[in-house]
Design brief:
alpha/beta, Arc Repressor Mutant, subunit A, 321 residues, four-stranded parallel sheet
């Protein structure tokens, strides 16, 4: 609200995917209009939100009907102006141009093409939602959360596009808990469609059954690792010793998968600093933030704690012996 008033922002726009992060952002914007208009009736408030919040679902062949309906349902319940756009034709055009330029036909059957095929979708969404923001002269909301920022699970110039990132300091675990609370407290039935299915970027074909936790690790683990590493400054072996007693049942008393998650987290966090340097400005929400300007200062060029991870591997091997 303060940002809007001081900068003369007319309204907001965001890509509403039907997922948890963009839904939380849309809800926060809608609630800000309520705080600015405390005496407005529900009908008047819906009119205000309809003028001040534009959302768009930008689907591809990899998008499911569940997320499309969830996005539409939430936008309708909030009163936002909602666009339903299909970008598969634009994706196909980009792939055709790439093939003509490089001689490479990208295919999901080739593991080396997995990342480019995912990123082209996210970047085209970013380009189109920027177009909408420019047309209305609205502030584009970046919807990335803190857990994704920590490990770089975001596409630069794609889902990170925007002028402000309201939940960039909110861990994914908290996003999910907040949405459950908001659904109950504000009586929003559409939110149940958002939090019901597993979180997924829907960038791979449906038969690959992509989920965020499948790509990374359970968020209840990732968020604890983030706290231990960033807030407490623990090294990998310290993180293992601290968390293993409370997590070992979830790993069936096998320390190797947990050690693998620690290794993956540390490596991804080190390699993702260049992304965090380019994130949109955000708010301080938790006791520690990853903003390189105000919180977590970290070298963009950083060896991924090779020696410390070797100590962890040695310790886990000793447990097995």
């Amino acid at each position: 609200r303060e940002y809007t008033k001081k900068c003369g922002i007319k309204g907001y726009t965001l890509a509403l995917s039907g997922g948890r992060d963009s839904s939380m952002c849309a809800l926060l914007v809608a609630r800000s209009f309520r705080y600015d208009n405390p005496d407005a009736s529900e009908e008047e408030l819906r009119t205000i939100i309809g003028k001040g919040l534009l959302t768009a679902y930008l689907g591809t062949d990899n998008s499911g009907s569940a997320t499309r309906h969830a996005a539409r349902g939430l936008a309708d319940e909030l009163g936002a102006t909602h666009f339903d756009g299909a970008i598969q034709a634009a994706v196909d055009t980009h792939l055709d141009l790439t093939a003509k330029m490089t001689g490479i036909d990208l295919s999901w059957d080739n593991p080396a093409h997995d990342l480019p095929l995912q990123n082209v979708q996210a970047r085209l969404r970013g380009s189109l939602i920027w177009m909408v923001a420019n047309l209305w002269e609205y502030l584009l909301i970046s919807t990335s959360n803190k857990s994704e920022a920590a490990v770089g699970y975001a596409t630069m110039d794609g889902d990170t596009s925007g002028g402000i990132a309201p939940i960039a300091d909110v861990p994914k675990s908290l996003v999910t808990r907040w949405l459950h609370w908001a659904a109950r407290f504000h009586g929003l039935s559409s939110v149940e469609q958002v939090v019901g299915p597993p979180a997924t970027a829907e960038l791979r074909p449906p038969e690959k059954a992509q989920t965020d936790e499948g790509d990374l690790m359970p968020f209840y683990v990732l968020d604890q690792l983030m706290y231990q590493f960033v807030q407490l400054g623990q090294e990998p072996l310290e993180m293992f010793r601290t968390l293993w007693p409370s997590l070992k049942e979830r790993y069936d008393d096998d320390p190797k998968p947990f050690a693998a998650h620690i290794r993956k987290f540390v490596r991804l966090l080190c390699f993702a600093q260049w992304k965090r340097e380019r994130f949109a400005i955000s708010f301080r929400v938790t006791a520690f933030d990853l903003d390189p300007k105000t919180g977590f200062r970290f070298p963009p060029v950083q060896a991924p704690f090779t020696e410390e991870l070797a100590d962890l591997d040695q310790y886990v091997a000793s447990l097995e012996c």
